[in-house]
Amino acid sequence: MISYCTNVHPAEDLGGILAQLDRYSVPVREQYGEDRLGVGLWLAAPVARGLAEDRAALAKFRAELDARGLGVCTLNAFPYGGFHDEVVKQAVYHPKWTEPARLRYTLDCVTVLSGLLDEDAAYGSISTLPLAWRDPWTPVDDAAATTALTELTSVLAQSERPVRLAVEPEPGCVLDTVADALGWLSGRVDPAHIGLCLDTCHLAVSFADPAATLRQIADAGLDVVKVQASAALHVADPAADDAKAALAAFAEPRYLHQVRELAEDGTVLASDDLPEASAELPAHGPWRVHFHMPLHAAPPAPLTSTTDVLTTVFAELAGEPHIEVETYTWSVLPGGGDDLAGGIAAELRWARDTRKAVS
Prior knowledge:
Blueprint: E1 2-5, H1 14-32, E2 37-40, H2 45-53, H3 55-67, E3 70-71, E4 74-76, H4 100-116, E5 124-128, H5 139-156, E6 163-167, H6 178-185, E7 194-199, H7 200-205, H8 210-219, E8 224-229, E9 231-235, H9 241-248, E10 259-262, E11 268-271, H10 274-280, E12 287-293, E13 304-305, H11 307-316, E14 322-325, H12 340-358
Parallel strand pairs: 1-2, 1-14, 2-3, 4-5, 5-6, 6-7, 7-8, 8-14
Antiparallel strand pairs: 9-12, 9-13, 10-11, 10-12
Helix pairs in contact: 1-12, 2-3, 2-4, 4-5
Domain Xylose isomerase-like TIM barrel: 52-219
Protein name: Sugar phosphate isomerase/epimerase
GO molecular function, one term: isomerase activity
């Protein structure tokens, strides 16, 4: 079952979540053409806490999902809250994995997901942030995050339903690339309970080879627990006037849009956000921009999207990890997304059909 991530919707209370499931998720299911639609739920921390502490409310929420033909095998526990604030930027990386609030939130999500999983689900997955934004990060922070994940693992090992944590590398963070995540996680976590969330937008931005990356993950003895099916912007010639003009429309103020440039010698140069990239990068080589693009639709020329990276991941992927379409940027997309349900359904069809074609 391919899911779509509900972090595209802004509600941060249970009533609002149910209203958005009615407004968007049910029409998505109908347009997608399936009797049961997978939703990768994003629950802000207070909602997760309330459901975790009230089993009757959790059972009622499960019944509400069932009545709408919606199934849950995965949660997105990366944003803690405020994901649709006017300005999010680096606030999305708080609380860090050094802070008790991050562990508490994730433990609540374990309880909630255990109560929402279908009976025949092999496991549930929870994606989470790559520890923190890269700076500041100290050896003390490293030890604190390790302790928190060890405590989480002890809970996962005793969970009433099998639930696994999926750590999601992201440009600019402590675990910037998949290689960084493998170096930090290997030998530190129990791979039976903790693995990777492979966000294919983030993978593309890093300019890593997707097939080689999957081999490296397997060689490290870790699993791809979850794939976030997503695409980045690719700019072949960022110095060209038409490219600059097209990119300007994507330099919006809510989310962080990290930029990477591939130099001629293979070095990857970095800028933390699109508005600053033109002053910080030489623009001699291609750029990739962390802006989640709808999978089924091409951006305005001369920009392209990195759906080829996702297609390669689909083709080379071993096993059956959870797949979640995660285009949270519809509200800030140039040109807007007036028919959000129709757009999400089109993305899901693209992901389903592409996965079948290359598997």
